[in-house]
Amino acid sequence: MRIIENDTFGAEVRDVDLARIDEHDFALVREAFVRQGAIFFRDQELDEAQHIAFARRWGAININRFFKAHPAHPEIALVVKEPWQQDNIGGGWHTDHSYDAVPALGSILVARELPPAGGDTVFASMYLAYDGLPENLKREIATLKAVHSARHVFGSYARAQVADSDFRSGDRIGNPAAADALAEVTHPVALVHPLSGKRAIYVNPGFTIGIEGWDEDASKQLLRELYAHSLAPEFAHEFKWKPGSIAFWDNRATWHLARNDYHGHRREMHRITIEGDRLVA
Ligand code: SIN
Q1: Going by CA atoms, what residue is nearest to atom 4 of ligand 1?
Q2: pLDDT tens-digit profile of 204-251?
Q3: Is 96 assigned a catalytic role?
Q4: CATH number at residue 121
Q5: How many domains does one find in the chain?
Q6: Is the residue at 46 inside a domain?
Q7: Which residues contact 43 (CB under 8 A, 6 or more apart)?
């Protein structure tokens, strides 16, 4: 097995079969995951049961409340775009499940059907983004908490805007009542990562709705500043999918965005999300 670091962050793990990985190699993969925040595999042939078994080695599986599930395996959330659909899932910068009181550790995404070109996923390292902040901004955010919510994305009001059309939404996202009922949660703006001990920015454009105790304008201004900073190309890595590819990202250390540049073609990905830990500043 070889672990090859990307130019910016993340690492590609080569010459390994995840269906049969032994404890020694698993420990090396785990170390790379903790250090890098995202790891990538090629030429894998995991079936659904093997995908689930690999995920369970990292922790308990979170059964997604909003995504359509695989018909035979509820642990697997379907991330699909049909040729006639316009919107993709995950097409804006976000980190999965920051709206939960105990946010997810990470997500393991397996490519099942890819368009002939495009449909790549871009990742941004929130470790690098934090390290690159000016010292005064690090000090300013050290004790701040941000408010996160799922309602504006998965709630009934948000879904009503798109649910009328298979062209936009279809039945890929559901259960808006669960999002409506989900209380807003707060997390540190800069967390200390539960596995690596490193600091990372933990606000994201998808699910962060403000800074605790701050008014809307001041919240927006700080979030805009943090987002503009975090999207610098030197903190990003674009993963080019091929048949047999798998990406595994740490939701506490990265953001991601799925490119929606393959209209007229089908893309099907299988995602398993793993439960995480309560976050501290
Ligand atoms: C996601 O946002 O979890 C999906 C990413 C992708 O489809 O590339």
Answers
A1: 90
A2: 999 999 999 999 999 999 999 999 999 999 999 999 999 999 999 999
A3: yes
A4: 3.60.130.10
A5: 1
A6: yes
A7: 244
